[in-house]
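User: Please predict the structure of the protein below. I'd like the answer in structure-token form so I can feed it into my own downstream comparison script.

Assistant: Understood. Taking the following sequence of 203 residues as input:
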Amino acid sequence: MTQATPAAASTTAASSTTTPTTRDRLLDAAAGLFYREGVGIGVEALCREAGVSKRSMYQLFGSKDEVLAASLERSAPAHQAFLVPGADERPPRARILHVFERLEQLADRPDFRGCPFVSVSAELKAPDHPASLVARRCKDTLTAFFQEEAERAGADDPALLARQLTVTFDGSGVRAVMQGRGLDGLAVTMARTLLDAAGIGDR
């Protein structure tokens, strides 16, 4: 089965149409370039990758920063859908661990460069940057999922557990990038430890 990747997630919307628009091509190119090479990519390289002129880009976006923010916003739903399970009958523990199992799958890929939202925020070092705001909203969505499942499981402090799980998720992705290798089950093991400590079992 083909697995989604953070960089490829943003192409979902464009691939559903036969003729991608100029905006589609720009955002697809931005998602790939920024993920692979960082936010320092220049406008010329971005437009060359997208096959559009700088004039066309500036007719759609006021700046490269706006392109970066829009590309993250566009990729978020597909990225979230890959990580977070839809409605099913599994207990909260299994649904939470599903996220970490998915992370392990991504980390095993040679093109894995970490969580795109964490990467962008770390590079920008500007919490108020439009792209940083988008990234934070996306991470908050994951934390909200963890908290909802923790509440269903009856955790004493669902909000705290959700933040701990998010930190574990983000830290695991960073470690995989720094080590240049997969996680070998480490992310799932750490998540299990947190769930065990919170008294969240298999039911």
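That's the full token string. The radius of gyration is 18 Å.
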